Amino acid sequence: MEKRIKLPLTRELARTLEAGDTVYVTGTIYTSRDAGHKRMCEALERGESLPFDPEDATIYYVGPTPAKPGQVIGSAGPTTSGRMDAYAPAMMKAGARGMIGKGARLPQVVEAMKQYDGVYFGAIGGAGALLAKCIKKSELIAYEDLGAEALRKLYVEDMPLVVIIDSRGRNLYEEGRKAYLKSCQEK
């Protein structure tokens, strides 16, 4: 099903999304990769606040390239999500609900998604320049020393994504494989 959603990604909104849905996302998202996630999780372990309010937040696993003159941001394609698997359950426990990236997730991440009503959105790898066109504002908010991995606040409009894993743990990667194999056996 095709849906247009406005962030923040509340529990109620997350529960309406199903694996396989095409969504066009509008609202505020945050960027971070493994180095930024490591710092955020270390801060949480120390009982410190994060540089943004994680409640109902969506985090895009991206290390954008520098913006050229006249651009909001450079190329902004997704990075492999598995590098954040060690941190994703802690981030969801802190309130973050949405994740945008590419690639499979570990079972403990899927379990945390079910516990905290998380949603994993897939963005198309190799389409960073096209995805950057959906980004209307970009603000560096923390960890400037990490360069491309710094924590940024973005405002996006109609960012095209696919729900890969929904809040019930339904996984498009697994279901898609099963459907494909079944169709091959029927021929």
UniProtKB/TrEMBL annotation:
Keyword Lyase in record: yes
A GO molecular function held by the record: hydro-lyase activity
Ranges for domain Fe-S hydro-lyase tartrate dehydratase beta-type catalytic: 5-175
Assigned keywords, A-Z: Lyase
NCBIfam families named among the record's database cross-references: PRK06842.1 (NF005310), ttdB_fumA_fumB (TIGR00723)
UniProt similarity note: Belongs to the class-I fumarase family.
Protein name (record): Fe-S-containing hydro-lyase
Protein source organism: Candidatus Choladousia intestinavium
